[in-house]
Protein backbone atom coordinates (compact mmCIF):
# COMPACT_ATOMS: atom_id res chain seq x y z
CA UNK A 1 0.00 0.00 0.00
CA UNK A 2 1.56 3.36 -0.99
CA UNK A 3 2.33 5.82 1.75
CA UNK A 4 0.17 8.97 1.92
CA UNK A 5 1.51 12.24 0.58
CA UNK A 6 1.24 15.63 2.29
CA UNK A 7 -2.31 16.21 3.48
CA UNK A 8 -4.14 13.53 1.56
CA UNK A 9 -7.59 12.57 2.87
CA UNK A 10 -6.16 10.00 5.28
CA UNK A 11 -4.05 12.57 7.13
CA UNK A 12 -6.78 15.20 7.14
CA UNK A 13 -9.36 12.76 8.45
CA UNK A 14 -7.05 11.64 11.24
CA UNK A 15 -6.48 15.15 12.55
CA UNK A 16 -10.15 16.06 12.08
CA UNK A 17 -11.16 13.04 14.16
CA UNK A 18 -9.07 14.33 17.07
CA UNK A 19 -10.64 17.76 16.82
CA UNK A 20 -14.13 16.25 16.73
CA UNK A 21 -13.36 14.01 19.71
CA UNK A 22 -12.43 16.95 21.93
CA UNK A 23 -9.70 17.16 24.52
CA UNK A 24 -5.99 17.59 23.86
CA UNK A 25 -4.12 15.51 21.29
CA UNK A 26 -0.39 15.55 20.53
CA UNK A 27 0.88 14.71 17.05
CA UNK A 28 4.59 14.13 16.50
CA UNK A 29 6.35 14.64 13.18
CA UNK A 30 9.76 12.97 13.13
CA UNK A 31 12.30 12.87 10.34
CA UNK A 32 15.80 13.72 9.21
CA UNK A 33 17.06 17.30 8.96
CA UNK A 34 15.48 18.95 5.92
CA UNK A 35 12.91 16.16 5.37
CA UNK A 36 9.91 18.50 5.31
CA UNK A 37 8.63 18.39 8.89
CA UNK A 38 8.08 22.14 9.03
CA UNK A 39 6.39 22.07 5.61
CA UNK A 40 3.92 19.46 6.80
CA UNK A 41 3.36 21.36 10.06
CA UNK A 42 2.57 24.55 8.14
CA UNK A 43 0.15 22.68 5.88
CA UNK A 44 -1.71 21.33 8.91
CA UNK A 45 -1.94 24.82 10.42
CA UNK A 46 -3.45 26.07 7.16
CA UNK A 47 -5.90 23.18 6.95
CA UNK A 48 -7.11 23.59 10.54
CA UNK A 49 -6.83 27.30 11.40
CA UNK A 50 -7.11 28.01 15.10
CA UNK A 51 -7.25 24.30 15.93
CA UNK A 52 -3.52 23.50 15.97
CA UNK A 53 -0.32 24.94 17.41
CA UNK A 54 3.18 23.85 16.35
CA UNK A 55 5.80 23.38 19.07
CA UNK A 56 9.15 22.41 17.49
CA UNK A 57 11.67 20.32 19.41
CA UNK A 58 14.34 22.73 18.13
CA UNK A 59 13.33 25.19 20.85
CA UNK A 60 15.29 22.94 23.20
CA UNK A 61 18.66 23.33 21.51
CA UNK A 62 21.24 24.07 24.18
CA UNK A 63 22.46 27.66 23.94
CA UNK A 64 25.40 28.20 21.60
CA UNK A 65 27.55 29.35 24.53
CA UNK A 66 26.77 26.15 26.43
CA UNK A 67 27.55 23.98 23.41
CA UNK A 68 30.89 25.71 23.13
CA UNK A 69 31.56 25.21 26.85
CA UNK A 70 30.76 21.51 26.52
CA UNK A 71 32.80 21.14 23.33
CA UNK A 72 29.73 20.10 21.32
CA UNK A 73 29.28 23.10 19.03
CA UNK A 74 30.73 21.21 16.06
CA UNK A 75 28.01 18.57 16.55
CA UNK A 76 25.07 20.94 17.02
CA UNK A 77 21.91 19.02 16.21
CA UNK A 78 23.12 15.71 17.64
CA UNK A 79 20.89 14.16 20.36
CA UNK A 80 23.13 15.28 23.23
CA UNK A 81 22.94 18.94 22.15
CA UNK A 82 19.33 19.31 23.34
CA UNK A 83 17.73 19.87 26.73
CA UNK A 84 15.86 16.59 26.41
CA UNK A 85 14.49 16.58 29.96
CA UNK A 86 13.07 20.06 29.42
CA UNK A 87 11.38 18.94 26.20
CA UNK A 88 9.82 15.90 27.87
CA UNK A 89 8.57 18.07 30.74
CA UNK A 90 6.98 20.47 28.25
CA UNK A 91 5.18 17.63 26.46
CA UNK A 92 3.73 16.47 29.78
CA UNK A 93 2.41 19.97 30.49
CA UNK A 94 0.98 20.19 26.99
CA UNK A 95 -0.79 16.86 27.39
CA UNK A 96 -2.32 17.95 30.69
CA UNK A 97 -3.80 21.08 29.00
CA UNK A 98 -4.50 22.71 32.36
CA UNK A 99 -3.25 26.19 31.51
CA UNK A 100 -1.62 28.24 28.78
CA UNK A 101 1.85 26.81 28.23
CA UNK A 102 4.63 28.94 26.75
CA UNK A 103 7.09 26.99 24.61
CA UNK A 104 10.49 28.14 23.34
CA UNK A 105 11.22 28.80 19.68
CA UNK A 106 14.55 28.29 17.92
CA UNK A 107 15.66 31.35 15.94
CA UNK A 108 18.01 30.44 13.12
CA UNK A 109 19.06 34.08 12.75
CA UNK A 110 20.19 34.14 16.40
CA UNK A 111 21.47 30.54 16.46
CA UNK A 112 19.71 30.28 19.83
CA UNK A 113 16.28 29.55 21.27
CA UNK A 114 13.95 32.25 22.59
CA UNK A 115 12.00 31.31 25.73
CA UNK A 116 8.26 31.81 26.03
CA UNK A 117 7.77 32.51 22.31
CA UNK A 118 4.93 30.09 21.49
CA UNK A 119 1.71 30.29 23.56
CA UNK A 120 -0.42 27.14 23.68
CA UNK A 121 -3.84 27.87 25.24
CA UNK A 122 -5.57 24.94 26.97
CA UNK A 123 -8.51 25.01 24.53
CA UNK A 124 -6.36 24.23 21.46
CA UNK A 125 -7.22 20.61 20.58
CA UNK A 126 -4.13 19.58 18.58
CA UNK A 127 -0.49 20.31 19.37
CA UNK A 128 1.96 19.38 16.63
CA UNK A 129 5.53 18.83 17.76
CA UNK A 130 8.20 18.21 15.17
CA UNK A 131 11.83 17.22 15.47
CA UNK A 132 14.50 14.73 14.52
CA UNK A 133 14.50 12.48 17.56
CA UNK A 134 10.88 11.93 18.60
CA UNK A 135 11.25 8.20 17.98
CA UNK A 136 14.73 7.82 19.48
CA UNK A 137 14.88 5.52 22.49
CA UNK A 138 18.05 6.86 24.14
CA UNK A 139 19.71 10.17 25.10
CA UNK A 140 16.61 10.85 27.22
CA UNK A 141 14.14 10.80 24.32
CA UNK A 142 12.60 7.46 25.30
CA UNK A 143 9.46 8.92 26.98
CA UNK A 144 8.56 11.15 24.01
CA UNK A 145 6.77 8.54 21.89
CA UNK A 146 4.52 7.53 24.77
CA UNK A 147 3.41 11.13 25.28
CA UNK A 148 2.16 11.43 21.68
CA UNK A 149 -1.16 10.22 20.30
CA UNK A 150 0.66 9.38 17.08
CA UNK A 151 4.05 10.03 15.54
CA UNK A 152 4.43 10.26 11.76
CA UNK A 153 7.79 9.78 10.07
CA UNK A 154 8.32 12.39 7.34
CA UNK A 155 10.40 11.42 4.30
CA UNK A 156 11.68 13.20 1.21
CA UNK A 157 13.73 12.19 -1.81
CA UNK A 158 17.30 12.14 -0.51
CA UNK A 159 18.80 14.32 -3.22
CA UNK A 160 16.10 16.93 -2.72
CA UNK A 161 16.52 16.80 1.05
CA UNK A 162 20.27 17.38 0.87
CA UNK A 163 19.92 20.21 -1.62
CA UNK A 164 17.25 22.00 0.44
CA UNK A 165 19.22 21.54 3.64
CA UNK A 166 22.38 22.92 2.08
CA UNK A 167 20.53 25.97 0.76
CA UNK A 168 18.98 26.52 4.20
CA UNK A 169 22.41 26.60 5.81
CA UNK A 170 23.60 29.16 3.26
CA UNK A 171 20.51 31.29 3.92
CA UNK A 172 21.29 31.34 7.65
CA UNK A 173 24.91 32.43 7.31
CA UNK A 174 27.16 29.53 6.29
CA UNK A 175 29.38 29.83 3.24
CA UNK A 176 28.50 27.46 0.37
CA UNK A 177 31.53 25.30 1.22
CA UNK A 178 30.73 25.18 4.93
CA UNK A 179 27.07 24.42 4.17
CA UNK A 180 28.04 21.54 1.92
CA UNK A 181 30.41 20.09 4.51
CA UNK A 182 27.94 20.46 7.39
CA UNK A 183 25.08 18.91 5.39
CA UNK A 184 27.15 15.86 4.51
CA UNK A 185 28.94 15.72 7.86
CA UNK A 186 27.09 16.34 11.16
CA UNK A 187 23.66 16.59 9.52
CA UNK A 188 24.13 13.34 7.62
CA UNK A 189 25.27 11.45 10.71
CA UNK A 190 22.14 12.68 12.48
CA UNK A 191 19.98 11.75 9.48
CA UNK A 192 21.28 8.18 9.58
CA UNK A 193 20.49 7.96 13.30
CA UNK A 194 16.98 9.27 12.66
CA UNK A 195 16.40 6.86 9.76
CA UNK A 196 16.99 3.93 12.09
CA UNK A 197 13.97 5.00 14.19
CA UNK A 198 11.44 5.04 11.34
CA UNK A 199 10.06 1.59 12.17
CA UNK A 200 8.62 2.95 15.42
CA UNK A 201 6.40 5.48 13.61
CA UNK A 202 2.62 5.08 13.42
CA UNK A 203 2.73 6.02 9.75
CA UNK A 204 5.23 7.24 7.19
CA UNK A 205 4.50 10.33 5.13
CA UNK A 206 6.36 11.17 1.94
CA UNK A 207 6.44 14.85 1.06
CA UNK A 208 7.26 16.48 -2.25
Question: Would you give an account of this structure?
Answer:
There is one protein chain. The protein has 208 residues and is an alpha/beta fold. It has one domain: Rossmann fold (3-Layer(aba) Sandwich). 37% of the residues lie in helices and 20% in strands. The protein contains 7 helices and 7 strands; from the N terminus they run αβαβααββββαααβ. The protein has helices at residues 9-21, 37-47, 64-70, 84-96, 158-171, 176-184, 186-195; strands spanning 25-30, 52-54, 101-107, 112-120, 126-131, 150-155, 203-206. The strands form 2 sheets. The chain has a 5-stranded parallel β-sheet with strand order 2-5-1-6-7. A two-stranded antiparallel ribbon has the order 3-4. Helix 5 crosses helix 6 and helix 6 runs parallel beside helix 7. The chain is globular and about 50 Å long. The model has no long low-confidence stretch (mean pLDDT 92).
Strand order of the largest sheet: 2-5-1-6-7
Instruction: Give the proportion of residues in helices.
Output: 25-40%
Number of helices: 7
**Number of beta strands:** 7
CATH class: Alpha Beta
CATH homologous superfamily name? Answer: P-loop containing nucleotide triphosphate hydrolases
Radius of gyration: 17 Å
**CATH fold group:** Rossmann fold
Gap between N and C termini: 18 Å
- What characteristic shape results from the CA principal axes? globular
Helix/strand structural class:
alpha/beta
Amino acid sequence: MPEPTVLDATLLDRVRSWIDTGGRHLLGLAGAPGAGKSTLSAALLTAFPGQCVVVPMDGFHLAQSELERLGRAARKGAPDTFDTAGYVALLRRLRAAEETVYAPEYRRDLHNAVAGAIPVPPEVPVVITEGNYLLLDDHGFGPVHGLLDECWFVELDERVRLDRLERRHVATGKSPVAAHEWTRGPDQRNAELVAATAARADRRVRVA
